[in-house]
Structures are given as structure tokens and as C-alpha cells.
């Protein structure tokens, strides 16, 4: 999603803003811009492309002044063009803004502003904010009243930073993240702590419905009625400082390789939390599990392990679907909400709906400073460190580990040797040569199907998601038994099929499916602990406790999709059109 940053301090703003934008790149974007204020004058540069590209083309970091704003845009309203990039100046050029979110009533407001003589250069909803601020500033003559009037007029979910020609900054938050970084000499307003972590680890997480006015390093936080609000400074975890690639070519590769270690860490600080979560689960009328994308795929696995190992029934719900069937949620139940970022708008909406039905919320979340953390009755941390690659890899494993730990608590007979498991995962990662060779074969393929049964079916879906995101290859997860009910018609010599086939109760049936597919000429990649002549390529996984198969299956597939991305010359860290935290519905 869009990243916004504002800076006011003792140093030249533009290079600091460009660095902050670079650190927030992982959130996903298509264009970049910076505006600064110097000697009561606002200057602005922006364009489409990566931060480094746009910076070398327009020298964003040479803009003058110690006050500025910056933005990376993830297009929602209007195409990816230089003009649609932020910051947006107001008509007078005396105010410039950066915005994340969506202004729902922008058409109505645009019409009113056009009637008042304002004109618009972009197709964005965001430019409305700049001109509305100008209009309100001209009538109120002060920043506080201007912001209050503006937020009372706009509808939607948003965070914006506005810079005024006199050097004042103001930022408002309504359901989109906004954090104040409080340094000795410099103050930041940012969507993400990575925007300022190099300079300070003191953060104020602004509440939704609050705004801040910043002038010469002095700031005041107010609510939308203009009442002063007390704030708390949180020490941001230093682990954010680890968000470097180190010796790895990409964050995604680094994050895949971190998995053997995180097996020990996932849920480690949440022992009491797990006990509490178990109490809620035992007493719940119903259990619902929600998430989006990869986190929803974890929910699918959660349903299977809760049912198989502890005989507890649960219902996975795609977070974005719940708003269309809120009656699904029965009173006094438990909602397990899974989210790496803790900021996915769909997940937060699902939580809101469940809370209305008096449900308890168990949040499984990686970013412990996120909105979902604050909404949980019990919070279980994934503890897998910052995940920068846009495609979820290590966070999926961490989510499953937290879920396993819940199941273990519910059924003491389940023993998992984490030490051994970590070793066997390391073995998969030690020798990627075979996987790299298979990746070369996938380079020219346009359709890949992935088959799995039972607990391996969610892995088939997750593998398809990874292939789509990282390689842009059309990929589809299929429950093995459904093959003959339709998908078999697609099997021919141009197709590759990955069969997820560990030696569990699904093994024989899936092997039969593989033979049926092979008879139609498709190439088979078998992911299994047992070799078979039906596989054209065999990805060997370790023989382990069957509850752990999903993790040992997905890790080599993450590697396969990573190396396929390299073969296809796509950027594995920043897939096109995607954002790391999807904070709009
Ligand atoms: C897939 C992926 C997305 C996220 C989804 C939910 O690789 O990254 O599908 O899993 O957007 O994000 P969180 O877990 O942050 O709520």
C-alpha cells in the first residue's frame, strides 16, 4: 500500500525522506515523490518507478529545506502516471499533501471544489485533500481548524500528511496507519516504523480519529473535535533494524532461509497467551478462523489439525467475505484472526463484525505494534522478525507453528521434536541445485496445477498463490479427488503438475491421480518423502511427524517459486501490482 512520510528537523529533509521511502519499499508501490519547504516555498518532484530510479532521474534528494513529505504510491484511483504520483500540491501551490487510503466521497467533493473554481491535474482521490485544505485554510487561517474542517468533510479510510508553505506539518489518521517517530532533533510522521527506524526507536502510534500538528520539532496531538490527546511513547523493537538483506540476493531468499531458526522462536513469547487462548477455545460456542491470502491458507490448515488432533470443529472464513454474511458469526464464539502485518483491512473488518457478536478475539500476528494486536483479547506473536518480501514465506511457517503449539496444549499426547524438525528443514535448504534445475523447466510454462488431498490441499493452494505472485504463471491448487470432476480436461503436454504427496493417508490416492495425469502427457513434479517412477522431477522432503508435513512441503516450493522468478526475470521481493500490507478494503 502507499507509504507516507513527513519530516521536520535539524537536517536536510529530502535525503532522509528518500532513505525512509526506500526502507518502506516492501509495502509495494508504483511511483514516488518528495516535496520540501524552504524559505516559505514548496518544491516538489515525482515520477513513476522505483525509489532509486525516480531519484536518479529527478534527484529527489537534492530538494532544499529541513521540512518535507514523501510518498510511494500504490494506485487505486487513476492509472500509474507521473501526474497521479504524490505529493499533490493545492491549486495555490501553498499546500502539498501525501495520502494513503481511499476518499469515498471524492467525486462529490471534486464537483463542489470545481464549482468553486478549483481545477485538478490528476485522476486521484487524494488531490481533493490538497484543494479542500487550501479552501479551508483560506477561510480559517489556521492549521488546526483547517484539519478539523477537512476531516469532517471527507469520508473513507485514510492517513495523510499536509505541508504548509509556512513550514507547518499536519497529519490525520482515520483507520490507516500513522506513526510519529520522536528523535532528539528530528520528528517523523510515517506509515511504518521502517520510515524512521535508522534515526529513532521512539514511536507514538496515533489513534484513529486523531491528528497531529508539527512545527519546529514541537508537536501536539488532538482528536477530530480539537481536544488535546495524551500520548504514549513506545520503544520500537530493535529487530526492525535487521531489515537488511545481508549476504542474500533478495529479502525473499533470506526469509526462506530463516525458517529453520524460527521454528524455535514462533510463539516463544506467548506461552501464557497460548494457555489463555486454549481456555477461550475450550469454552467457545463456535470457533471461526479468519485471514486473507496466505494467512487464510493457514486458517484452512488450522481447521484440519483442530479437527484431527483435538476433535474441535472450526470454520475458516475468508476475511473479505465476512462482511457479506455477518450472520455467520454466532454470539459468544471465538474468532482466531491471523495476519502477518496485523493491518489487513479485511481482517480488521472481520474482527469488528465478530466483536459486535460478543466474540473473543485471538490474534495471531507478527507485527506486535499493529492494529490487530490492539484488538485481540489474546495476542499470540509469530515472532518471525520483519518480513519484507511481499510474498509471505516465513510468516506462513510461523503461523502454522503457533497453531501447532495451540493444538499441542489442547492435546498433550502430541509430541513434536522441534530440534529434529529444524534440522530436516535445514537439509531441504542446504542443496537447492535440483530445485534450481526444475525452476529452469518452469520458465516457459504458462499453466501449473498443484494437487493435494486433506491437509496437503491448503498447501496446494498456498503453492499456487506463491507461483502466481512470484512468477506470474497461472497456477491453481486442486483437491486431488476433484481431478476427474473437471480439471483432467486441462491436462496435456504443455502442462506441469505438482503433486503434494507425503507418505500419509492421502499417499496412494494422490499417486493414482499423478498416473492419470501422466497418461495425458503432463509433466509431474512430485513433492514427497518417497520416490516414484511417475514423477518426472522429484523434490524430496524429509520423513517426519505427519502434522509437520505442510511446512516441509511448502519450504521447497517457496524455493522453487523464488528460483523460477529469477529465471523469468521478475523481482521476487516486489511482485507487480501487490502490496505487503493491504490496508484498503
Ligand atoms: C501472499 C501474501 C498475501 C498476504 C495477505 C494477508 O504471499 O503475502 O496474500 O498473505 O495479504 O496479509 P496479512 O497476513 O498481513 O494479513
Written overview of the protein:
The protein has 585 residues and is of the alpha/beta class. It has 3 domains: 3-241, Glutamine Phosphoribosylpyrophosphate, subunit 1, domain 1 (4-Layer Sandwich); 244-414, 3-Layer(aba) Sandwich (Rossmann fold); 430-585, Glucose-6-phosphate isomerase like protein, domain 1 (Rossmann fold, 3-Layer(aba) Sandwich), CATH 3.40.50. The protein has 18 helices and 24 strands. α4 packs across α5, α8 crosses α13 and α9 runs antiparallel to α16. The chain binds fructose -6-phosphate (F6R). The site of fructose -6-phosphate has 15 residues, from α9 and α16.
Question: Any idea what the shape is?
Answer: globular
CATH superfamily of the largest domain: Aminohydrolase, N-terminal nucleophile (Ntn) domain
Distance from first to last alpha carbon: 11 Å
Number of domains: 3
Task: Tally the helices.
Answer: 18
Q: What oligomeric arrangement do these chains adopt?
A: single chain
Structural class: alpha/beta
As a percent range, the share of helical residues equals 25-40%
Strand order of the largest sheet: 3-2-4-1-10-9-11-14
What Rg do the Cα atoms give? 25 Å
**What is the level 1 CATH name of the largest domain?**
Alpha Beta
Amino acid at each position: 500500500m502507499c507509504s507516507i512520510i513527513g519530516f521536520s528537523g535539524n537536517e536536510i529533509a529530502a535525503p532522509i525522506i528518500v532513505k525512509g521511502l526506500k526502507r518502506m519499499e516492501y509495502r509495494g508501490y508504483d511511483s514516488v515523490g518528495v516535496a520540501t519547504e524552504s524559505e516559505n516555498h514548496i518544491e516538489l518532484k515525482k515520477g513513476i518507478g522505483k525509489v532509486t530510479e525516480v531519484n536518479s532521474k529527478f534527484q529527489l534528494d537534492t530538494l532544499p529545506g529541513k521540512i518535507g513529505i514523501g510518498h510511494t504510491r500504490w494506485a487505486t484511483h487513476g492509472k500509474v502516471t507521473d501526474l497521479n504520483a504524490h505529493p499533490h500540491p493545492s491549486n495555490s501551490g501553498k499546500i502539498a499533501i501525501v495520502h494513503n487510503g481511499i476518499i469515498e466521497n471524492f467525486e462529490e467533493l471534486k464537483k463542489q471544489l470545481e464549482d468553486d473554481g478549483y481545477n485538478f491535474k490528476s485522476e486521484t482521490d487524494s488531490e481533493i485533500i490538497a484543494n479542500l485544505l487550501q479552501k479551508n485554510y483560506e477561510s480559517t487561517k489556521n492549521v488546526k481548524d483547517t484539519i478539523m474542517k477537512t476531516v469532517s468533510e471527507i469520508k473513507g479510510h485514510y492517513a495523510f500528511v499536509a505541508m504548509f508553505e509556512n513550514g507547518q506539518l499536519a497529519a490525520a489518521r482515520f483507520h490507516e496507519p500513522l506513526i510519529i517517530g520522536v528523535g532528539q532533533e528530528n520528528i517523523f510522521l510515517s506509515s511504518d516504523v521502517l520510515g524512521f527506524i535508522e534515526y529513532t526507536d521512539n514511536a507514538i502510534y496515533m489513534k484513529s480519529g486523531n491528528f497531529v500538528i508539527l512545527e519546529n520539532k514541537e508537536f501536539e496531538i488532538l482528536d477530530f473535535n480539537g481536544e488535546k490527546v495524551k500520548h504514549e511513547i513506545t520503544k520500537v523493537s530493535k529487530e526492525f533494524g535487521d531489515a537488511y538483506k545481508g549476504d542474500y540476493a533478495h529479502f525473499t531468499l533470506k526469509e526462506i532461509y530463516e525458517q529453520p531458526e524460527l521454528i524455535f522462536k514462533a510463539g516463544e513469547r506467548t506461552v501464557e497467551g497460548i494457555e489463555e487462548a486454549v481456555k477461550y477455545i475450550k469454552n467457545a460456542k463456535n470457533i471461526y478462523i479468519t485471514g486473507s491470502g496466505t494467512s487464510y491458507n493457514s486458517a484452512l490448515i488450522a481447521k484440519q489439525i483442530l479437527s484431527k488432533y483435538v476433535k474441535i470443529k472450526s470454520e475458516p472464513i475468508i476475511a473479505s467475505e465476512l462482511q457479506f454474511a455477518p450472520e455467520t458469526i454466532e454470539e459468544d464464539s471465538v474468532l482466531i484472526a491471523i495476519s502477518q502485518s496485523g493491518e489487513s483491512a479485511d481482517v480488521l473488518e472481520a474482527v469488528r463484525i465478530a466483536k459486535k457478536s460478543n466474540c473473543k478475539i485471538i490474534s495471531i500476528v507478527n507485527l506486535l505494534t499493529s492494529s490487530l494486536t490492539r484488538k485481540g483479547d489474546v495476542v499470540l506473536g509469530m515472532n518471525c522478525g520483519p518480513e519484507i518480501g511481499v510474498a509471505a514465506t516465513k510468516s506462513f511457517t510461523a503461523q502454522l507453528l503457533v497453531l501447532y503449539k495451540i493444538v499441542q496444549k489442547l492435546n498433550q499426547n502430541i509430541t513434536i521434536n522441534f530440534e529434529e524438525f529444524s534440522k530436516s528443514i535445514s537439509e531441504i535448504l542446504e542443496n537447492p541445485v535440483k530445485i534450481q534445475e526444475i525452476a529452469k523447466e518452469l520458465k516457459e510454462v504458462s499453466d501449473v496445477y498443484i494437487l493435494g488431498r486433506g491437509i496437503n490441499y491448503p498447501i496446494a493452494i498456498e503453492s499456487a498463490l506463491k507461483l502466481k505472485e512470484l512468477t506470474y504463471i497461472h497456477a491453481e491448487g486442486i483437491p486431488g479427488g476433484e481431478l476427474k470432476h473437471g480439471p483432467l480436461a486441462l491436462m496435456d503436454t504443455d502442462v506441469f503438475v505438482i503433486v503434494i504427496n507425503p507418505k500419509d493417508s492421502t499417499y496412494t490416492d494422490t499417486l493414482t491421480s499423478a498416473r492419470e495425469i501422466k497418461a495425458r502427457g503432463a509433466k509431474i513434479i512430485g513433492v514427497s518423502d518417497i520416490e516414484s517412477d511417475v514423477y518426472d522431477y522429484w523434490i524430496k522432503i524429509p520423513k517426519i511427524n505427519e502434522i509437520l508435513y505442510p511446512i516441509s512441503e511448502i519450504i521447497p516450493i517457496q524455493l522453487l517459486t523464488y528460483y523460477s522468478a529469477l529465471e523469468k526475470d521478475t523481482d521476487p521481493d516486489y511482485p507487480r501490482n501487490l502490496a505487503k500490507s493491504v490496508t484498503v478494503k
